[in-house]
Design brief:
Elements: H1 10-15, E1 17-25, H2 31-47, E2 50-59, H3 71-84, E3 88-91, H4 97-107, E4 112-115, H5 116-127, H6 131-145, H7 149-152, H8 155-160, H9 166-204, E5 209-215, H10 221-229, E6 246-251, E7 256-261, H11 271-276, H12 278-285, E8 289-295, H13 301-314, E9 320-326, H14 333-342, E10 347-348, H15 357-372
Parallel strand pairs: 1-2, 1-3, 3-4, 5-7, 5-8, 8-9, 9-10
Antiparallel strand pairs: 6-7
Helix pairs in contact: 2-5, 5-6, 6-9
């Protein structure tokens, strides 16, 4: 908003990468869903260090096989990029290598084209801190890159000309493919060793009741862990601030419970990213109780919980679950009452103010006794 203290200054805006967003709207989709996806894509862009200067939506029955959006829209996009001085375009859906090549022919080679998966991987790479998360992110990046190698060698057309480009290009692509496949094998072996070590650690604490905090990114899981255990998990108002599982003990004096903060989920989470993070997500798979943490102040809170449920089913985590609606300090009394109606068995809490935390904590110990007995 103009004049707001939080608005970036002109000098700050110039330093940030200027980004234009693109989203297709399909016949059976409501425009409001597409708009919400673009807002989330804008948050992802901000987390990655960019500033959104414009967006475009196009209603189509299916993606254009050559350009993803219609060819006429590509020329319209080119004009918008010039008007906004943007050189990066991010699509909300995954693009095929051929589509990227065709788009660049019209938008120009100075333009950077990303899709949602590439953006999420970039954010994960920025936030990876531990050796394990760095390996997981690198593995996911390489698996994302492998089918896109041909598009990465388009510079050979300029270097060698149209005649004879196939020889050098194909040789280089094949060489890169072998290097990447070898690196993927090495990383998978490393993750297997880490997973074996994790299993040993989990066996050592196997007698203790285990709780996993799982939820949409930025739902406040790390803040909740800190409220429970006085832990020092990283808390930041941005997407994917936490990539590594953090486990702490909590006790009521008689019983002890292990509680783990896990990596957040998001809509259209790249499948190879889920695969790479399976060793971290194993904390959720093997927990005795999963608490689904959701941001109650987000307009799409119900959809976020469905997305988390879908990912949990995908990784085979089907044990006992409870819902915790966080950030109720941001809500009116009427909004809290509405959440109580649609989530009658949920914990309504605020990790920030402490509202509902003591009751939730006591309930966890009671469930530990019921579900696993005395230990």
């Amino acid at each position: 908003m103009a004049g707001s203290k939080n608005s970036p200054t002109k000098s700050t805006e110039k330093r940030l990468e200027r980004v234009f967003l693109v989203r297709l709207v399909y016949p059976d989709e409501d425009v409001s869903i597409a708009e919400d996806d673009l807002r989330e894509l804008a948050l992802l862009t901000k987390t990655a260090g960019g500033i959104v200067v414009g967006s475009m939506m196009q209603r189509r029955e299916h993606p254009d096989p050559a350009y993803f959006i219609g060819k006429g829209k590509v020329f319209e996009l080119r004009d918008m990029l010039r008007e906004t001085d943007a050189h990066t375009v991010i699509f909300d859906d995954d693009l095929k290598p051929a589509q990227v090549r065709n788009l660049l022919k019209i938008l120009g080679n100075r333009t950077k084209i990303l899709d949602r998966s590439g953006l999420i991987l970039d954010i994960f790479a920025t936030h990876a801190r531990t050796p394990e998360s760095k390996i997981q992110v690198e593995l996911a990046q390489l698996e994302y890159m492998l089918p896109r190698l041909a598009g990465m060698w388009r510079h050979l057309e300029r270097q060698y000309g149209a005649i004879g480009v196939r020889g050098p290009g194909e040789k280089q692509i094949e060489l890169d493919r072998r290097i990447i496949q070898k690196r993927i094998s090495i990383l998978r072996r490393k993750l297997q060793r880490i997973e074996r070590e994790r299993k040993v650690q989990r066996k050592r604490r196997g007698r203790l009741f285990r709780v996993a905090l799982v939820g949409y990114t930025n739902a406040g899981k790390s803040s909740l862990l800190n409220s429970f255990a006085g832990a020092s998990a990283l808390v930041a108002d941005k997407l994917f601030a936490t990539l590594d599982a953090t486990t702490r003990k909590i006790s009521d004096g008689e019983r002890t419970v292990l509680i783990t903060d896990t990596v957040g989920f998001i809509k259209k989470l790249p499948h190879h990213l889920v695969e790479s993070f399976k060793s971290t997500l194993a904390e959720a798979q093997e927990a005795d109780l999963i608490i689904l943490v959701a941001d109650g102040s987000h307009p799409a809170v119900e959809e976020h919980l469905k997305i988390v449920d879908t990912v949990l089913e995908e990784i085979g985590a089907s044990q006992h679950r409870k819902i915790a609606i966080n950030k109720i300090d941001k809500l009116t009394d009427e909004e809290v009452a509405y959440l109580r109606r649609i989530f009658p068995d949920a914990f309504l809490i605020s990790a920030k103010t402490g509202a509902g935390i003591d009751a939730m904590r006591q309930n966890i110990f009671q469930m530990a006794e019921v579900l696993k007995g005395e230990y």
